[in-house]
Amino acid sequence: MIDEDEAGKRLRSLTDSLKRLSELAEASDSRMEIDEIVNAVLGEEAESDRELESLVRSAFQSSSEPLSLSQMAIGILAVKKWREVWV
């Protein structure tokens, strides 16, 4: 269980990620590369790396339908968190 402060941090992180991803989508006419998407979601938190990009690419490719920007952001943040905890 997370406390109120942690929940607030996560919500702000998601909100900021969605804003950056939306700006990228507009600037690129929705033709975005995986590395651009990951970097937009992570922002200044960290540089993406090939392993994270590979995990995200696999996750995106396993989807049977196109992902919304919010699904992309939530998924990337979840993969990043999973890797921090389990790898």
Describe the fold and architecture.
By secondary structure, the protein is an all-alpha fold. The chain has one domain. The protein is 72% helix and 0% strand. The chain has 4 helices and no strands. The longest helix has 24 residues. It is globular, with a radius of gyration of 13 Å.
What are the low-pLDDT stretches, counting only 5+ consecutive residues below 50?
A: none
Main sheet properties? none
How helical, in percent, are the residues?
over 70%
SS-based structural class? mainly alpha
Number of domains: 1
Radius of gyration: 13 Å
The number of distinct β-strands equals: 0
Percent strand equals under 5%
Question: Kindly state the mean pLDDT as a whole number?
Answer: 89
N/C terminus separation? 21 Å
What is the overall number of helices? 4
Order of helices and strands: HHHH
Overall 3D shape:
globular
Strand and helix map with partners:
Elements: H1 4-27, H2 34-42, H3 50-61, H4 69-86
Helix pairs in contact: 1-2, 1-4, 2-4, 3-4
Name the descriptors.
mainly alpha; 0% strand; 87 residues; 72% helix; globular; 4 helices
